[in-house]
Write a structure and sequence with these properties.
About 85% of the residues lie in helices and about 0% in strands. It has about 525 residues and is mostly helical. It folds into 2 domains: about 425 residues, no CATH class; about 70 residues. The longest helix is centred in the first third of the chain and has 39 residues. The C terminus is likely disordered.
């Protein structure tokens, strides 16, 4: 995959992910407005996090880290990739169905393990009931992730990237119908989740079939490929799901404080926008590209792909992090401050947003660094690093909770994220030159940081000027758009001026994409 094609693939995934995140914002705005922070939303967040946590392990973890490189190599060598994909589908179906059945039976234990602070109040029973409805989502999404991996490995990123958009479309429509018909918002929300999973699986399965990879479901049978996939996937699941595990640890701490689970969830949605658009998009495109280049022995091409992915990721992430740190209050107030979400909720969400902003570059860098290991089928090293990061996260979250209260989980997640980046960087030193950023990356990095700091100063000044407008009904939306526009224009202007990011490169990639 040439650098320009790598960037085009990234933009394809990024655009669809951006649409998904924007619709996700609409979804969260509606949830916060119509339900609001409190027992119902706390219960929904805790229940919905269960299938999402396992989705990270089975889907984005095991099958983007283990399945994609193996499938890519078989595709490159023409070693029966369709048979390999069908075998993987059979085993993944069996494992996720078994997991779903166990979760249905032991849902109270799962809720206690992830939100122990709910025990003894109505939130616990609510979460158990909601969890049993939404958990089957893991089955549909895991199979959808497998077909997405097939599509990504063949360079077809569109349908796989578009699938997550369906969840937000379905949820927004469901809550809108419930609101205007007088139905129960939370009931419509909960039952829509598994329905959306079915739609996502249908989209990716049919797209794979049209691409010539119509995998047929059969009974799982042991074979050497599946044993290797399993051995590779188990540590990969934990390594790539470390953020989810850290979030669960944070939820355990936050569940002791009423409303805190909802506050952290809302803040998480804000920083997940740039993380999803940049980090996940780069990771999805970079992994199959690195796998092919390493298989072909192209160390120069692998280093170029790795360096450009890191450059693109930080060029779009560092300014986003600065914005979350400098202007969290206007962002949260305008986006979420309405209906059932009051001023105290807005202030709490803004604090958490700023703390997560400090860790945003780390969360994205992990998405760039991990493919170095996964492309070599090395999932054990990230597994060990993940264990260290989890210990750091848990120690900070539980240790600081008595001191700073519900904010401890956010700070713990951020510090653990940077620890993971340091461990991945140290571990990659024993690899070849393709695992090191090239000189162009380092030349541009300081320019990107400098342009981001200048953008932050512009945002700070603009925020002071627009303070009154940001508090006025209706006008506040235009004021926020203006504020964000000032940030975008100032960053790209400074970055282009100082040579941190050439706009012509992005335009060229878009035309070729």
């Amino acid at each position: 995959m040439k650098p320009i094609r790598l960037l085009s693939g990234f933009l394809t995934v990024g655009v669809w992910t951006l649409l998904s995140r924007v619709l996700g914002f609409v979804r969260e705005i509606m949830i916060l407005s119509l339900i609001g922070p409190g027992p119902l939303m706390d219960a929904f967040v805790a229940a919905f996090r269960l299938p999402n946590m396992f989705r990270r392990f089975f889907a984005e973890g095991a099958f983007n880290a283990a399945f994609v490189p193996m499938f890519s190599k078989k595709l490159e060598a023409d070693e029966e990739p369709v048979r390999f994909g069908a075998d993987a589908l059979a085993w993944l179906s069996f494992l996720t169905l078994s997991l779903t059945a166990l979760a249905m039976i032991f849902m109270p234990a799962l809720v206690w393990a992830t939100a122990a602070g709910f025990e003894g109040d109505p939130r616990f029973d609510l979460t158990v009931g909601y969890g049993r409805i939404v958990f089957p989502y893991i089955f549909f999404m895991s199979l959808s992730a497998l077909f997405s991996g097939v599509l990504n490995a063949t360079g077809r990123f569109g349908a796989a990237a578009a699938a997550p958009v369906l969840l937000n479309i379905f949820v927004v429509l469901a809550m809108t119908i419930a609101h205007y018909t007088g139905g129960s918002i939370i009931d419509w929300l909960i039952w829509t989740v598994p329905v959306a999973g079915i739609a996502q699986l249908t989209l990716t399965w049919s797209a794979a079939a049209k691409a010539g990879f119509g995998l047929k479901l059969h009974l799982p049978k042991p074979n050497p490929d599946m044993r290797l996939l399993l051995v590779t996937a188990i540590p990969a699941a934990l390594a790539t799901g470390v953020m989810q595990i850290n979030l669960v640890v944070g939820q355990l701490v936050a569940s002791r404080f009423e409303g805190a689970v909802s506050w952290l969830f809302a803040a998480d949605r804000l920083y997940q926008l740039p993380l999803g658009v940049v980090g996940i998009a780069v990771g999805i495109v970079l992994l199959p590209d690195l796998s092919r280049k390493l298989k072909a022995g192209d160390a120069v091409g692998a280093r170029e792909a790795f360096s450009r992915a890191g450059e693109i990721a930080l060029a779009l992430t560092v300014p986003a992090a600065i914005a979350l740190i400098v202007i969290p209050l206007p962002l949260v107030s305008v986006l979420f401050g309405r209906g059932e979400t009051g001023p105290d909720d807005v202030a709490a969400i803004a604090v958490a947003t700023a703390i997560y902003g400090l860790g945003l570059p780390a969360f994205v860098l992990q998405k760039v660094q991990q493919p170095l290991y996964f492309a070599r089928s090395d999932t054990r090293s990230p597994f060990r690093f993940a264990l260290v990061a989890m210990v750091i996260n848990a120690g900070i979250a539980f240790g600081l909770a008595p001191v700073i209260g519900w904010m401890a989980p956010a700070l713990a997640t951020t510090l653990a994220g940077w620890a993971m980046v340091a461990l991945l960087a140290l571990g990659s030193r024993k690899m070849g030159p393709e695992a090191r950023f090239d000189s162009r990356f380092w030349r541009r990095l300081w320019r990107i940081v400098f342009a981001s700091i200048l953008m932050g100063a512009c945002l700070w000044a603009a925020n002071l000027t627009l303070t009154l407008a940001l508090d006025l009904p209706l006008i506040r939306y235009a004021a926020l758009i203006l504020l964000v526009g000032i940030g975008i224009v100032s960053f790209f202007g400074f970055a282009h001026l100082f040579g941190g990011l050439r706009l012509g490169e992005l335009r060229g990639a878009m035309r070729r994409g």
